[in-house]
Structures are given as C-alpha cells and as structure tokens.
Write a structure and sequence with these properties.
Chain lengths: 307, 256
C-alpha cells in the first residue's frame, strides 16, 4: 500500500473512482456509506446514543456510584437529586442510577442475542424458500404464516411459561416470534433477485444453489434485513421489558429495565420516578435504534441508489 | 460438421391452458467459426432459443446438438467451458455489490483456473479495459464498460461458442459500434463461433454470415447475408422487415 501522510490524501484514497486493491474498493464503498449516514443528523444522534449505551455497559463498574444490588432500607424511595443518589432510590433503597447503568448490560445482551438469532433464522428460511420454490417454498412459508398468526407477546408468554422464567428463555421466546417477518422480507427479495440476469450469469458458470444463495443472494438481502433489525430493536426492547414487567423475563434482583418498571408500579402515584427513570431509559434506547434504522435505510437500501 | 445444430426445437412456458409456445419447430445449424444471426421483432422467440440452449429454460422438446453431441435436460459440467452467453442488459447482468475483480475472479475460480490474478488482468486487457477498472463496482462503470466486463466474464472460461443476446441494444448508439467492433475482433483472434440475437438488421448485417428470420416463434427464412444486402428475400415477412429497416421514405415511393 502506498504511504499517505495527511488526512486529505486519505480522503482522496478513499473516494477515488479507481481503487487499486480489493481492500481499497471495500473501504471506499464503506466510506461512501458513512458519508451518507453522516449527513443524516438524526441518525447520528441515534448512533451516538447507542455508542454511549455501549460504553456505559462496558464501564458499568466504574460509572455506577453504588452497587446495584445493595439495599438500604433506611434510604428507600428517595426523590430525584438526593445527595449521592441523583435519580433517587427504589423501594428497597437501591440506587436507581446504578441499576440503570447495570441494566444497560442486560438490555444489550437481549438485543444482541435477538439481533443474531431472528434475522439469521429468517434469512435462511426466506432465501431457501424463495430460491427453491415449489413445495419447499409452500411448506416453509406456511410454517412462517403459523408463527406470524400468533400474537407476539402471547406466544412469548407461552414459551417462557413452558421453559421457565429467565433472560435466556425470554430471548428465545422473542426470537421465535421475531423471525417470520425477516423470512418474509428475505423471500420477497430473493424472488425479485433469482430471475435476474446476474444470477443467470453465475448459473452459466456452473455455480450451484448453495453458492448462489450465500454469495449472490445474501449480500443483497442483508442490507434490508439490517435496516429491519434496527427498526425492530425498539420492539424487542419493549417486548423484553414487557416480559420483565410481567415477571417472566429477568428475575429480581437483576436490574432489568422492564422489571424495574414493574417494581415501581406499586408506588407510581407517590414516587413516580421509580418507574419513570427506567421507562425513560427504554424510551431513549428504542428511539435511538429507530433513528439509526431510518438513517441506515437511506445508506443500505439497494433500490434507492448506487451504493 | 456443424458446431451447433438445432432440430425441430420447441420451447414453451406455462402449462395446459396458460401454455405459451415461444418457439415452434425451429431448425438451423451454425458451422464452426461462423457467425449466425437470429432476427425478428420483440417476442418472436429469439432470446428464448438462446436461453433454452444454455439450460435456463427447462421446458423444451426437439434436438439441440453441440459438436454433434446431444444436449439433455441437464447441462454437463464441461458445457459452460465451451458455450457462454452475453446478456442483453449490462445494467442487470452484473451483481450490484460485486467488483469487477470479484465477478471475474469467481468465474475463473468456478472453472478451476489457478492463475486467477494474471488471467483477470489479461481478460480486462482483451476487452479494452485497463487495470484501473479492476476494483470498481458496476455503478462506477458506464453501460459500455459494463458490457465489456460482461463479455470478459463470458470469455473467462475460454469458450469456443458465444451466444449474444442483443449485446448492444441497451447501449448508447455511440457505444454500440465500439462493442460490436470489439466482438468482431474477439471472434477473429479467438476463432469463436457466434450465435447472435438482434432486432437490429444493420447490426446483424455487420456481424453475421448467415441469418434466420423469426416471426411469432417460427423461423420463416434462413438466408445468407449477401441475399439480405441484395434485398432478395423469399418470405414476405422478411421483405417487410427489410423494408421497414430502411426507415422513412418520401411519400412517392409508398403505395398509398
């Protein structure tokens, strides 16, 4: 690689129309996407919030002023801006700020797992159904329809009830109800792609279905799935919080945001902040995901432009 | 012996009541090293013959032979090393997320070549694109450049028969001549056999030795290109096609 010293030449290197290596071509197209994303202020706000969430989760022990689990019944239900407890304390005297900070880890954990399981399962089912067609398509899509017909939270409830309460089961339950839309999207994309000339062209090179699906169809489906994932994440966080609220997700004393709201519910009229603070956290993160998803759609949507 | 021979080929889409016969009992033969043109208006089944030849349309009956060898429903492994196709629309025939390097590299890889780097550079040079184009995405290329990449991809396995599905109809008029000249040069240097589909009689007259005229799925006439230039067709449809290709004439020559 040629040596570039100043930032100006780096930019030239990245925006050139004549890349000289595979790496440069890939980086240049990523940089192009980044420029589009950067011009969308709201998406950058969403990205900033999510990065902050990541950092908070990573450095929770250093940021939290108190142990999220230590109780102090003498200092229960303290209001906002109390000394040492900026967001007050809950019914057992636990510091709400510290619990929110540690709760971000649980939220991220749930979001990451669901974001890995549901879209990948949907992508597999959708592309196989779309590319193969015929009886395989019919069977896979009817299964998808069955899952799609169940109310999401009710199916999740049934799963958690069958498997027992806990975060992992909540994640599994949410993923099980979240994959059908991804399968639908992936199938629809595959149907539009599979008859196109560039797929015929690789078929004429003797490529098998496995290679065509993984190398040629997936890259075109993934972008719309990523957009859908970020837009769905708000719903996933809310579903996890809902399960927590119903006592079927994270179990006390774990500082999961939904469970925290559920605990604060008893005091919501007199001590509103106990439920409002975790609610605000859920709201902020959901909003951030939505904003970022909107911005990503502009960058990644293959139909909207050249990138 | 004919390089490519088609006997009583019929191709259809759909079943029973929805059945559409796209090609009806077509027969022709392309000698080795020749350039054969299929002309006719849109929907006359020209492209369908090509697609049936390479196995993209499974519903056909009749006989298709390459080098005297009968083609079955499934193409043998070596078939695509020998027969390749260039598609009509270069905007649709290149994967939007693959660089030129990826497109050619994958093709070479699939055909089991090992010196892929050298071959990619050689192919780009052969189709008149410099090494600067190697790592570009399709959206960074013009229509003519894309079609050159598509031609390079078709040439990658070193085929001896090239099927051309209106290779210039999606291109700008100024670029059409360039691509046609490139194809003519490649045929000469590589001793290729062309089967070319076009609705443009001028293109076919420039490129081919022999043409078959198609109408509504049937081949109505096969004639040498000299007959075509001399405007001495046998079939009335061919005459009509040739006359209409001459464009607008002042009114005294028209019958009305």
């Amino acid at each position: 690689m040629t040596q570039q010293s100043s930032t100006q030449t780096w930019r030239q290197w990245l925006t050139t129309d004549t890349p000289r290596s595979r790496r440069q071509a890939r980086l240049a197209s990523a940089y192009h996407g980044w420029l589009t994303l950067r011009s969308n202020t709201l998406a950058m706000v969403g990205l900033a919030i999510l990065l902050a969430l990541l950092l908070i989760a990573a450095f929770a022990p250093f940021l939290a002023p108190h142990d999220p689990l230590s109780q102090d019944l003498g200092a229960r239900l303290l209001p906002l801006w109390t000394d040492g407890h900026p967001l007050g304390t809950d019914s057992l005297g636990r510091d709400i700020l510290s619990r929110l900070i540690y709760g971000s880890r649980i939220t991220l954990y749930i979001v990451t797992l669901v974001a890995l399981i549901a879209p990948i399962a949907g992508l597999l089912v959708g592309t196989i159904a779309g590319y193969t067609g015929g009886i395989v398509d019919a069977v896979l899509m009817r299964i998808t329809d069955i899952f799609l017909a169940f109310p999401r939270l009710v199916l999740a409830l049934a799963f958690v009830a069958a498997l027992g309460a806990g975060i992992e089961n909540a994640v599994l339950a949410i993923s099980l109800t979240a994959w059908p839309p991804y399968a639908r999207i992936a199938r629809a994309e595959t149907l539009t792609i599979r008859r196109s000339d560039f797929i015929s062209a690789v078929q004429l090179q003797g490529a098998g279905p496995l290679r065509i699906i993984t190398r040629h169809i997936w890259p075109l489906c993934i972008s719309s799935l990523i957009v859908r994932v970020t837009l769905d994440m708000a719903g996933v966080i809310l579903a996890a919080a809902g399960l927590g609220f119903l006592g079927l997700g994270a179990q006390p004393p774990s500082p999961e945001w939904g469970a925290m709201i559920s605990e604060g519910r008893k005091f919501i009229l007199d001590f509103w902040w106990v439920a409002a603070m975790p609610g605000l956290a859920i709201f902020t993160v959901s909003l951030a995901f939505n904003l970022l998803g909107d911005g990503l759609r502009d960058v990644l949507d293959p139909k909207s432009g050249s990138s | 012996m004919s390089r490519l021979e088609i006997n009583d080929l019929s191709v259809w889409f759909g079943q029973d009541r929805d059945r559409v016969d796209a090609v009806k009992h077509a027969s022709f033969a392309v000698p080795s090293g020749a350039s054969f043109g299929l002309v006719g208006e849109s929907g006359s089944g020209k492209s369908t013959i090509l697609r049936a030849l390479v196995g993209l349309v499974p519903t056909w009956s009749g006989e298709m032979k390459i080098d005297g060898q009968q083609l079955t429903k499934k193409r043998p492994r070596g078939f695509f090393k020998d027969v390749q196709m260039v598609f009509q629309d270069p905007y649709a025939s290149l994967h939007p997320r693959h660089t030129v390097d990826q497109v050619l590299g994958e093709t070479l890889n699939l055909h089991g070549f090992s010196d892929i780097n050298d071959r990619i550079e050689q192919l780009l040079q052969d189709v008149g694109l410099g090494p600067a184009f190697r790592f570009r995405y399709p959206h960074q290329l013009s229509g003519g450049q894309r079609q050159r990449v598509a031609i390079a991809r078709a040439l990658a396995p070193e085929p001896s028969v090239l099927l051309l599905d209106e290779p210039t109809s999606a291109l700008d008029v100024s670029v059409q001549a360039e691509v046609l000249n490139l194809l003519a040069d490649l045929r000469e240097t590589r001793a290729l056999t062309y089967l070319m589909v076009s609705h443009n009689l001028a293109v076919v007259a420039h490129m081919c030795n022999e043409i078959a005229v198609m109408q509504a799925g049937e081949i109505v006439e096969v004639m040498g290109v000299e007959d075509m230039r001399a405007m001495t067709p046998q079939h009335p449809y061919t005459r009509h096609l040739l006359e209409s290709s001459q464009g607008y004439r002042p009114s005294e020559e028209q019958s009305e």
